[in-house]
Design brief:
This protein is α+β, with helices and mostly antiparallel strands. It has one domain: 2-Layer Sandwich (STM4215-like). Helix content is 21%, strand content 39%. It contains two helices and five strands. It has a five-stranded mixed sheet with strand order 1-2-3-5-4. The longest helix is centred in the middle third of the chain and has 17 residues. It is elongated and about 60 Å long.
């Protein structure tokens, strides 16, 4: 059995960012909730969030339209001109995401919905994090949430 469709979308995004040759290189972490150590910066984290689910059919099994929220965060050292490094990595990641509008065929539409910034000064070394909020539209049957519908 394949992984849940949300996990498949998240993994496809992470793999595409690694393959996209960003300034983060291979430092792309999927499902990471612990802070990224200063020595591992710059880095990118990819995490799933909430899902909104709409039932599209009246009888079981139900066809569902799911909107999966995904956060892709770029992490850089807060040095002089940190914004240059953060915006460069952000731009590289956005280019990768724009190149995979279906997340490798797992979603019908992958779109950027917001960008938020956080400056973490209480860390051992200050870091800056810019988080891309993404939404992925997927269609599945409620009895096969691992199989995307065409």
């Amino acid at each position: 059995m394949a992984a849940h469709i949300a996990k498949q979308v998240i993994d496809a995004i992470g793999a595409a960012i690694v393959a996209g040759a960003t300034a983060a290189g291979s430092r792309v972490y999927v499902g990471r909730i612990t802070p990224v150590p200063q020595a591992d910066l710059p880095a990118v984290t990819v995490n799933g969030g909430d899902e909104q689910i709409e039932q599209l059919t009246a009888r079981a099994p139900h066809q569902q339209h799911r909107v999966i929220q995904i956060d892709v965060a770029v992490h850089v050292k807060a040095l002089d001109a940190y914004d240059t490094n953060a915006y460069l990595l952000l731009q590289q990641v956005e280019h990768v995401i724009a190149a995979i509008p279906t997340a490798g065929g797992k979603a019908r539409n992958l779109r950027l919905t917001e960008v938020s910034w956080e400056r973490v000064a209480d860390a051992e070394q200050p870091i800056v994090r810019a988080t891309l909020g993404l939404s992925a539209d997927v269609y599945v049957m409620n009895n096969a949430v691992d199989v995307p519908l065409a």
